[in-house]
């Protein structure tokens, strides 16, 4: 078998056309274009590349975007003051502070300082709570991208065994929530799956992974998922983005898994572009909620 490719790059593009149409309709009606402020601290190369993709995405769909690139030694109070300004700026509908942060800045303080109505990452505890309760204001970008990638490729989820490897607040935990939740009108991203979450304390990772009809790797270890860990015909989603040889980006899934899986998302070209499209969708939603 050679796995069907879950092409995130193409789906992300298709969905951006839909978002661009919604943006154009708003501007034609005399409303402000949705705007995203991105804050990047320091000179991490990978972060700079993701941030560039975010800005390119905004331009593609007709949204405003501002990059606040701050030096690596920026103080926490300086960043909090900038966030205050962005929270009250009516042209800014979405705010994203690129993680990870340098050590002098507390992640927790920053997550609390982004106004929850502009928190397009959905990291603020108010938004985490709304998601956990089953009526999200914003659905977190990477998990939402994974769900769309599976749905639009007709991978069944309701009643299926889904295994998520990784339990971070950014990917694994919110994805497990979406996967287990009932699909409702308030929460169309709910998947009705039977969910297992694995992590570093899981004793037999291979045995747990082999149960999966849908296996999601969100770990950050190149090649962790090998063919012996995958049930024949399973759908495998690779969230990992790891530095590979010669500056190439590689996932958490060994490419040989394509010989066992029924479907597989590539890195690059899978979840990454979907994440950015979901960020654009959340910025549009923020504008709708803030400006009508
Ligand atoms: N494409 C995209 O849009 C995005 C990609 N990413 C990528 O996804 C990956 C994960 O990101 P993130 O969730 O932030 O990472 P974190 O480092 O925050 O979390 C990693 C998780 O993987 C678990 N883990 C680590 N090693 C193993 C192992 N050997 N076996 C089982 N579980 C393990 C950890 O377990 P424990 O909790 O026990 O430590 C932890 O829960 C990274 O490569 C990141 O770059 C992230 C965000 C968006
Ligand atoms: N506040 C915050 N929100 C985030 O959503 C966030 C973050 N911080 N910190 C880092 C992670 C990682 N992340 C990615 C986004 C896009 C690609 C992406 O576009 N990847 C492309 C290729 C990228 C390239 O060519 O380098 C692809 O996979 O095809 C990857 C990773 C968002 N994150
Ligand atoms: Mg992390």
Automatic annotation (TrEMBL):
<feature type="domain" description="Tetrahydrofolate dehydrogenase/cyclohydrolase catalytic">
    <location>
        <begin position="6"/>
        <end position="121"/>
    </location>
</feature>
<keyword id="KW-0521">NADP</keyword>
<dbReference type="GO" id="GO:0009086">
    <property type="term" value="P:methionine biosynthetic process"/>
</dbReference>
<dbReference type="GO" id="GO:0000105">
    <property type="term" value="P:L-histidine biosynthetic process"/>
</dbReference>
<keyword id="KW-0368">Histidine biosynthesis</keyword>
<dbReference type="GO" id="GO:0004488">
    <property type="term" value="F:methylenetetrahydrofolate dehydrogenase (NADP+) activity"/>
</dbReference>
<dbReference type="InterPro" id="IPR020867">
    <property type="entry name" value="THF_DH/CycHdrlase_CS"/>
</dbReference>
<dbReference type="InterPro" id="IPR000672">
    <property type="entry name" value="THF_DH/CycHdrlase"/>
</dbReference>
<keyword id="KW-0511">Multifunctional enzyme</keyword>
<dbReference type="GO" id="GO:0005829">
    <property type="term" value="C:cytosol"/>
</dbReference>
<comment type="subunit">
    <text>Homodimer.</text>
</comment>
<keyword id="KW-0378">Hydrolase</keyword>
<dbReference type="InterPro" id="IPR036291">
    <property type="entry name" value="NAD(P)-bd_dom_sf"/>
</dbReference>
<dbReference type="Pfam" id="PF00763">
    <property type="entry name" value="THF_DHG_CYH"/>
</dbReference>
<feature type="domain" description="Tetrahydrofolate dehydrogenase/cyclohydrolase NAD(P)-binding">
    <location>
        <begin position="140"/>
        <end position="288"/>
    </location>
</feature>
<keyword id="KW-0554">One-carbon metabolism</keyword>
<dbReference type="InterPro" id="IPR020631">
    <property type="entry name" value="THF_DH/CycHdrlase_NAD-bd_dom"/>
</dbReference>
<dbReference type="InterPro" id="IPR046346">
    <property type="entry name" value="Aminoacid_DH-like_N_sf"/>
</dbReference>
<keyword id="KW-0560">Oxidoreductase</keyword>
<keyword id="KW-0658">Purine biosynthesis</keyword>
<dbReference type="GO" id="GO:0035999">
    <property type="term" value="P:tetrahydrofolate interconversion"/>
</dbReference>
<comment type="pathway">
    <text>One-carbon metabolism; tetrahydrofolate interconversion.</text>
</comment>
<feature type="binding site">
    <location>
        <position position="241"/>
    </location>
    <ligand>
        <name>NADP(+)</name>
    </ligand>
</feature>
<keyword id="KW-0486">Methionine biosynthesis</keyword>
<dbReference type="GO" id="GO:0004477">
    <property type="term" value="F:methenyltetrahydrofolate cyclohydrolase activity"/>
</dbReference>
<dbReference type="InterPro" id="IPR020630">
    <property type="entry name" value="THF_DH/CycHdrlase_cat_dom"/>
</dbReference>
<dbReference type="Pfam" id="PF02882">
    <property type="entry name" value="THF_DHG_CYH_C"/>
</dbReference>
<comment type="similarity">
    <text>Belongs to the tetrahydrofolate dehydrogenase/cyclohydrolase family.</text>
</comment>
<keyword id="KW-0028">Amino-acid biosynthesis</keyword>
<feature type="binding site">
    <location>
        <begin position="166"/>
        <end position="168"/>
    </location>
    <ligand>
        <name>NADP(+)</name>
    </ligand>
</feature>
<comment type="function">
    <text>Catalyzes the oxidation of 5,10-methylenetetrahydrofolate to 5,10-methenyltetrahydrofolate and then the hydrolysis of 5,10-methenyltetrahydrofolate to 10-formyltetrahydrofolate.</text>
</comment>
<protein>
    <recommendedName>
        <fullName>Bifunctional protein FolD</fullName>
        <ecNumber>1.5.1.5</ecNumber>
        <ecNumber>3.5.4.9</ecNumber>
    </recommendedName>
</protein>
<dbReference type="GO" id="GO:0006164">
    <property type="term" value="P:purine nucleotide biosynthetic process"/>
</dbReference>
